[in-house]
Amino acid sequence: MNPEKLKHDVKQYWNNTPCGTEFIGQQKFSPAYFAAIEEFRYRIEPEIFGFAQFTRFHDKKVLEVGIGAGTDFVQWVRAGAQSYGVDLTEQAVAHVTHRLQLLNLHAADVRVADAENLPYDDNMFDLVYSWGVIHHSPDTYKSLTELIRVTKPSGRIKVMIYNRNSLFAFYRYFQMALLKGKPFWSVKKVLHHHQESPGTKAFTFREVRKMLTRLPVKIVQLKAPVTQHDLLYYKARPFKWIAYALACLFGWNSVGWFMMIEVERV
Ligand SMILES: C[S@@+](CC[C@H](N)C(=O)[O-])C[C@H]1O[C@@H](n2cnc3c(N)ncnc32)[C@H](O)[C@@H]1O
């Protein structure tokens, strides 16, 4: 598909379904609405705290790319970082603007912008953070180069993208290919058509290492720990037991759906 058309469809998807809001019953933009989004997110994805380490960036210049409903973004602001945030969608910016107002917090800049073409100067940020975003953008490599471009030398880039060789990706293949009588579909194709916005990608460690060797960065950590998503927290017990057994077999730090990449700009 033409990348501009795909980006338009990605934008439309996330404007209609801002991330993490789909199961929230409370009135949109109310304090209860934002509290429910935050409570659910960190119950299911507690590993975000260990990876982001929000409080270590007090007074630092931090850019979050793909703010979504703003749950992590609010943590940067609460931690006293000079916080800049962008997202492809107007809905994300509206969520974050309302949320900051309700909490009486102030960010340096929140705006609509594309990860593939960031509206910031080179070498501007101490940290660029992006959780679950650039695999949705048609050109993930271009997004990565942009995240690195705006980071200061010796600054950090922390990115989460999906891991194709993960328990969750395998589960989606089982569900959307095997059970639907399409065993010849690849995991890639299943994710492209059936995982959140159209065109979603997932990468292997090898592919990520290959991308990173072409860029001015040094790897600090690269891991994919098994999380609640891989352990199918919303399924019946037999599914969870199978997932648990597979995690023991294949490795708790490598077959998780969330591939966490931390690099230093050189
Ligand atoms: C799965 S949500 C993640 C949001 C947030 N980081 C979170 O973890 O809740 C994906 C987000 O990426 C945004 N996004 C997708 N492509 C983008 C791009 N090219 N530039 C900026 N944001 C993008 C979407 O609008 C959406 O808000």
What is this structure's SSE topology?
Blueprint: H1 3-16, H2 31-44, H3 47-52, E1 61-65, H4 71-78, E2 82-87, H5 90-103, E3 109-112, E4 125-131, H6 140-149, E5 151-162, H7 167-178, H8 187-194, H9 205-213, E6 217-223, H10 237-250, E7 258-265
Parallel strand pairs: 1-2, 1-4, 2-3, 4-5
Antiparallel strand pairs: 5-7, 6-7
Helix pairs in contact: 7-8
S-adenosylmethionine (SAM) binds next to helix 1 and strand 2.
Structure characterization notes:
By secondary structure, the chain is an alpha/beta fold. It has helices at 3-16, 31-44, 47-52, 71-78, 90-103, 140-149, 167-178, 187-194, 205-213, 237-250, and strands at residues 61-65, 82-87, 109-112, 125-131, 151-162, 217-223, 258-265. β2 (82-87), α5 (90-103) and β3 (109-112) form a beta-alpha-beta unit. The protein is globular, with a radius of gyration of 18 Å. The model has no long low-confidence stretch (mean pLDDT 97). S-adenosylmethionine is lined by residues 10, 14, 19-20, 65-66, 68-69, 86-89, 92, 114-116, 131-133, 136-137.
Write a concise keyword list for the protein shown above.
266 residues, alpha/beta, Rossmann fold, 18% strand, globular, binds S-adenosylmethionine
Task: Write a short abstract of this structure.
With 266 residues, the protein is of the alpha/beta class. It is built from ten helices and seven strands. S-adenosylmethionine binds next to helix 1 and strand 2.
How can the largest sheet be summarized? 7 strands, mixed
Bound molecules: S-adenosylmethionine
Strand order of the largest sheet: 3-2-1-4-5-7-6
Overall tally of structural domains: 1
Strand content: 15-25%
SSE pattern, N- to C-terminal: HHHEHEHEEHEHHHEHE
Q: Which outline best applies? A: globular
